[in-house]
Amino acid sequence: MYIKKIHVNNFRNYKNIDIEFKNDINIFLGNNAQGKTNLLEAIYFLSLGKSLRNYHKDDLIHWDKQYFYIKSIVNINDKDNTIEIGYNRNNRKVIKINGVEKRSFNDLLGFFNVVIFAPEDLLLVKGSPSLRRNFLDQEISQLVPYYSKLLSDYNKIVISRNKILKSNKADLIKTLDIFDEQLSNLASEIIKKRIDTLDKLKILASLTHRKLTDNQENLTIEYLSYLPERDIQKLSKQQIRESILLNYKENRKKDLEIRSTSIGPHRDDIQLNIDNKNVRKFGSQGQQRTTVLSLKLAELELFMSQKGIYPVLLLDDVLSELDEKRRNYLIKNIKDKIQTFITTTDKEDYLAGFGNIFNVNNGNIIF
Ligand SMILES: Nc1ncnc2c1ncn2[C@@H]1O[C@H](COP(=O)(O)OP(=O)(O)OP(=O)(O)O)[C@@H](O)[C@H]1O
Questions:
Q1: Residue 130 Cα to ligand 1 middle (Å)
Q2: Which residues are noted in the entry as ATP-binding (predicted)?
Q3: Using CB atoms within 10 A as the burial measure, which of 19, 123, 278, 314 is most buried?
Q4: Nearest-angstrom CA–CA distance, 230 and 19
Q5: Dihedral of CA 295/299/304/310: which sign?
Q6: Is any atom of ligand 1 closer than 6 Å to the C-beta of 346?
Q7: Integer Cα distance of 338 and 324 in angstroms
Q8: pTM (2 decimals)?
Q9: CATH number for the domain including 139?
Q10: Does 49 sit in the ligand 1 pocket, CB within 6 Å?
Q11: What b/e readout covers 71-83, taking b as 16+ CB neighbours within 10 angstroms?
Q12: Mean per-residue pLDDT of the chain
């Protein structure tokens, strides 16, 4: 899939631009704070219906304006499709795919796919478990669009359960029983989907990691859950449901003390190991970077294996962070295969030969 054209109106520091892209490597070149990442954000929004860094949608509207509007022609399997998104400061939205109106931003999920690799992703290894959960959840949401609804339903019930835990309601136990039943249904679906997806992703990441390290390192990935069963990947959804229900009940005393839901998919994590050692704790900076690159390349391949088509790749200022060997490997893997958008402040040597350069200057594009 690839983006043919984009029209960006009142989005971040762009007032009104139209750009045509090649199904190739496209480079946004410009000094700092000119709007390179903002363009990636517009592309990202078309895919996931949200801001890149979880900013409120109002922040995406140009400061001097009341609404933003993005329209794009996206080619998927040789067919042109139109995606249109309008949003105003009164929270009114218009979302259309091929002219058909959609109810929510979540309805965009799964139609047009992107993978983003930005400097912040280097925190995937070192950062908090929520970053690793988000990484996996975002991947699944694009592959299985109903997953994001599962997650949001689950999170809403956790919030309500926590409110109840903080209250002194007379029928507290009865209410918790109801919540735990609902939670265990959703939690088992979420955990099962995460484990199934991770099972595929980890094979692809491990293969890539081997290639990136000349067969020197073995990357393995584990899903860490509170559940006591050892091999939870071998459990059926029903078995996960029963186990989690039991554990919600067993943890109730603790939950009542801390007034919060202490177990569940919202607390799970993913552990990344190189040669059986946790990369977060023991990995060098270089190993952490390579691990993240392996994960990102695995994401691209997972899309290909599940959907039969590559997503669009957004590389925000990361090429300069990689050493020559990893950078060359990445470029070799995307060239002539994956439409890629690269932001950069300098016309580095390794970009020579890529013809599609867009000079970004204070919210304007100079071709
Ligand atoms: N809602 C908005 N309305 C108008 N301008 C905005 C808005 N949000 C951000 N900006 C402007 O966009 C600029 C940043 O653009 P962006 O993050 O795309 O820069 P960049 O070219 O990627 O820079 P860098 O190379 O430093 O990462 C900010 O300096 C800010 O002035």
A1: 26
A2: 30-37
A3: 314
A4: 52
A5: negative
A6: no
A7: 20
A8: 0.93
A9: 1.20.1050.90
A10: no
A11: bbbbbeeeeebeb
A12: 94
Centre of ligand 1 from the C-alpha of residue 20, in Å: 21
The DSSP H or E segment spanning 117 is strand 114-117
| Ligand 1 proximity of 343 Cβ (cutoff 6 Å) | yes
Is residue 303 located within the same domain as residue 163? yes
With a 6 Å cutoff on the Cβ, whether 30 touches ligand 1 is yes
Ligand 1 near 193 CB (within 6 A): no
For residue 34 and ligand 1, the question of a CB distance below 6 A is answered with yes
Q: Do residues 294 and 324 both lie within one domain?
A: no
Residue 367: pLDDT over 80: no
How many Å lie between the centroid of ligand 1 and the Cα of residue 36? Answer: 8
Q: Give residues with Cβ within 8 angstroms of 252, minimum separation 6.
A: 176
Is residue 338 within 8 Å of residue 310, measured between CB atoms?
yes
Annotated binding-site residues for ATP read 30-37
For the question of an ipTM over 0.95, the answer is: yes
Tell me which residue has tokens 């402040």. Answer: 345
pLDDT in tens, 319-365: 888 889 889 989 989 989 999 999 999 888 888 877 799 999 999 99
- 124 and 238 in a single domain? The answer is yes
Q: Can you give the length of the chain in residues? A: 367
- Regarding beta strands 100-102 and 219-224, do their DSSP bridges make them parallel or antiparallel, or are they unpaired? unpaired
Residue nearest to atom 14 of ligand 1 (CA): 33
